[in-house]
Protein 1
Amino acid sequence: MKQNQLKLYNTLSRKKEAFEAINPPFVGMYVCGPTVYGDAHLGHARPAITFDTVYRYLRHLGFKVRYVRNITDVGHLTGDADEGEDKIAKKAKLEQLEPMEVAQQYTDTYHRDMDLLNTLKPSIEPRATGHIPEQIELVESIINEGLAYEVNGSVYFDVLKYNEKKQYGKLSGRVLEDLMSGSRDLDGQGEKRNAADFALWKNAAPEHLMKWQSPWGIGFPGWHLECTAMSSKYLGKHFDIHGGGMDLLFPHHECEIAQGNACNHVDPAKYWMHNNMITINGQKMGKSLGNFITLSELFSGSHDLLEQAYSPMTIRYFILTAHYRSTLDFSNEALKAAQKGYKKLINGLRTCEKLSYTDTNEIEQDSKQMEQINSSIEQAYRAMDDDFNTAQAIGHLFNLLKKINSLHTGQLHPSQIGQEGFQKLIDTFTYFVTEILGLKEEKIDHQEKLLSALLQVYTEAKTARNYQKVDEIRASLKEIGIVVKDMKDKIDWAYEE
RNA sequence: GGUCGCGUGGCCGAGCGGUUAGGCAGAGGUCUGCAAAACCUUGUACAGCGGUUCGAAUCCGCUCGCGACCUCCA
């Protein structure tokens, strides 16, 4: 294990800390997943890619990581006009579908998009609706601790009482007094003892679609409960890393800490990591703002803001070129630049496959070249060790790419860097791009165009009576299962039967 | 209003006290049948004003501008 140098920024301390696993070589990581009531958008891609990279890098360092990312298919209340109504249920009524049908549909598209972005699947992907008993148990346990109270079939977390012994607000840096004055008038506010209290269980109105039987009557779980229930079930009461978007910092993650401490008497996570937002024209991209672009729109180019389609790997690369804690502004110009950068990197990958070491006695080793290569390799890893600075790592990879391209064009001879140096250069570049950054070649799929170009050559060869070439083309196409058909007045092709 | 963060060259985006980040775009060159790619060289950057320091984009203060959270949100 190479955990010695890894540092990560812990929101809890607001500092970069050395990463020390609680129980090495194992690492437990919980990341807040999507609420499946709409297509995944660019904003969903950021945490998915950020924590996929964290997952990949921890595994690279030799850790055995259990990566849990939930699917929220119930719970969260909507704001404003539809106060108190379940988000999933609302969408269901709109489309005349079963709530679970909506959740399933968007879970599927989320998975499809995440696969396209080449994110590794989490070890466990639990659903909120599959953990209702666990959540009820949790509520009971918090009531038993004297930190929650029931009113009209709803249960609220007693933040004031909790704050007597523990500190509510330690993650987000809030002070309880400030919170009590600033809170808005929401549904159920009248039932709460204090404005800062939050719901653990909500009484469901008869027309409410998703509801369950509980000791407090028919209802549904509160906004923050599922993550506490599922993280403690699969990772234990105290685990290594909890991740999510910065917008979840308060109140969601703050409440998770309070819930965890209330029933398990320990902070749920040792390290809290938060990715920053993607902005569009400097403003946060979000569902509620109506300025979001879905991933499938991005992949197909079908959105008014898009000048063209951007491939999944272009998006992945684009996100990796910024540090995860910085905001990243969307623009066609930036995406186009990302597309070129990505392709440059992938062309490097292809060049690596083609290169092989050749020795010659006439050329001496060049220690300066070797130093530059070793330094870039070392710095690329050091950048990852420094709070997963993919942007900086990519910069160093481009420096390596220059060497690779120089080898390819003959401006640098393999002998100058020695066999060992040569292999290290090729291997590191390839491994870093594909395994750590998770970038892969997107093969072009233009079968028709390629075939027609080839058949054009075939036709010309035939006209010129160059039958050797004609046979060659026919043979090579046959190898991939395609037969050339010489018709009376044209040349066509068909799949070999 | 409270809390937190940001402002880097034409664009994106690292850097967080002293070394060329890098990509895209631009200019010049090498290579090339042409082109492309690639390689080499290259430019006006650190919002403004003060301060600390031998030295600041980097630390401190103020000013201006922008954003996030405080309500579901990635």
Protein 2
Amino acid sequence: MPTPETTTDVPQDFEALKAVILERKAQLPKRLKQVAAYSLDNPDEIAFGTAASIATSADVQPSTLVRFAQHFGFEGFSSLQQIFRARLRERTPGYEERLKALRSNDHSKLESGSIFNGFVAAAHRSLDNIATSVDPQAFERAVDILAKADTIYLIAKRRSYPISSYMAYAFGKLKVKYQHVGTAAGIDDDMLAMATKQDAAFAVSFSPYASESASQARLLASRKVPVVSLTDSAFSPLAESSKVWFELVEADHAGFRSLSASMAFAMALTVAIAEKRRRTEDAATR
Amino acid sequence: MPTPETTTDVPQDFEALKAVILERKAQLPKRLKQVAAYSLDNPDEIAFGTAASIATSADVQPSTLVRFAQHFGFEGFSSLQQIFRARLRERTPGYEERLKALRSNDHSKLESGSIFNGFVAAAHRSLDNIATSVDPQAFERAVDILAKADTIYLIAKRRSYPISSYMAYAFGKLKVKYQHVGTAAGIDDDMLAMATKQDAAFAVSFSPYASESASQARLLASRKVPVVSLTDSAFSPLAESSKVWFELVEADHAGFRSLSASMAFAMALTVAIAEKRRRTEDAATR
DNA sequence: AATGGGATAGAACGAACGTTCCATTTTCCC
DNA sequence: GGGAAAATGGAACGTTCGTTCTATCCCATT
């Protein structure tokens, strides 16, 4: 038994509990450590879920939850759960203004805080715009084109490069064949020479446009490889080479443009392509 | 029975429910009016309590609560309770409105549209979280450490790689000396071997953690190179090697986690570092 | 390789839950 | 003031909950 002792050293609020869990995390047995990690990462789930549902979610047995609670001096899982509920209760009053006040007070007192806030705000603005600026039918067409492709060529340089590198990672996980153009210098052209009209390309470029991206897109287009592109202006050199293109203007803070909307777009596109492929394959093999 | 009707006009969120209750309050029978008043005055109690405890508290019978819920089109008390719980879960301001705006755009009509909307919503949620989960003082300390460094080593693999590759790009533009660890295999260790305690490192890793990132961070820490890290759990292997670390849980759509918050964080950090350096240099040469 | 102690999985249990049902009371219209 | 309809209280139901208990597993130590 883990020392019943006095009830005084049982954590009475969430912060205290968190501290104790972190302090003892290293010495915890495997399953209990698993619960510890889950509980701090998904506190809301603990607050609302039932022991059974949480156990499933955290991939342990319900009894493990009870043992976990008892390890920290609680009578059972239920009393531990109260701590997580209290945490949500106490944060309620006037959240709209309160959060706003908290943000501006907390962060802007320190110099770097305003920079931080600025970027979060810029990202929000970008995302607010994205829904209206992206035409859903064009999106559908883009998914169509790329889902049909044998290999997808990803073209992005400089500031756009993180976007294509995320897509490369995700495509790899999703088993979608791709070629990441623009990693090593020199071999790009050889890589592109292999593209046929059975393939397709996705190009990203924001002003000031990398001339390489534009010329690579043009090269592919001239060889009948369908190109889908993401850019920030109708005047982008990418637009003329593309079968479908999207105009997406990112908001900026102090001149540094956000990437959040582009990133969300890229994720959606990536998953939509994989999704469509799976559906098509299902239909074919049935 | 109080009109089974279609399920479409059953309130789906707290605001809608509140409106409906207030609208029909006057015509409600005595006991139901009592419940109506109680539920709007003590929404937290409804969220967490049991039917029995709430009934006692509101001085009615448990069955009255069920009848009350059914009067407003819910199947039973439990489904009404979900609305009150959701309210606490989604404590972020403006979130509901944003989602509503998203829902009403024409994306939802097309198949890929829901994927698109899902990722935008996930990005919003991530950003809403970031302001509260990042401690401004820790951020300030992180900026301090990295601004003082001679060379900044960027460590990130796989899903986190786009983040460090953005920072690499931005550092280049801002003339901040950096080394991007993890690009080419093999030379990483040689690169890290050159790091001294005059330098610093920024590591990013989300679960499932890339073991390389963790071991590289550990290596640097053991050689007194200060490490700042961005991760998603207090249990991350990065945490123990880091002087300052940030916990940032990205929201996900269909299991694909957003990168928007991490990206915004990375941008803010990057710019704040450059900003701080410029200020320090100004002060020195003056 | 054997042993001992702690940790775990899973079945079993009693308590508490939300809901339903029906007798009783209240309300409102004729 | 009588009667029907609506509203209410409270008991009973089946379900699901958190917890307990025990056989088994794992791992460290010898």
